[in-house]
Amino acid sequence: MKGYHYFVIIVGSLVMIYDIVRRTFQHQRRLLLLSINTEIG
Question: So where does this one cross the membrane (predicted)?
Fold first, then answer.
């Protein structure tokens, strides 16, 4: 039962980290697209 508890904690942490990384990546990509558009325009 203890191992299961640790498993839940690890999975929760991974999901949280993945969510943060995904949000950061989307934000960076938006900035990148904006900079590319301003250079072209």
Answer: 6-21
Is 5 in a helix, a strand, or coil?
Answer: helix
For residue 25, give every residue at least 6 positions away whose Cβ sits within 8 Å of its Cβ, in sequence order, or none.
none
Q: Taking the model in full, what pTM does it have?
A: 0.59
Q: Where are the domains of the chain?
A: 1-26
Residue pointed to by tokens 């990546």: 25
Buried b (16+ CB within 10 A) or exposed e, 11-39: eeeeeeeeeeeeeeeeeeeeeeeeeeeee
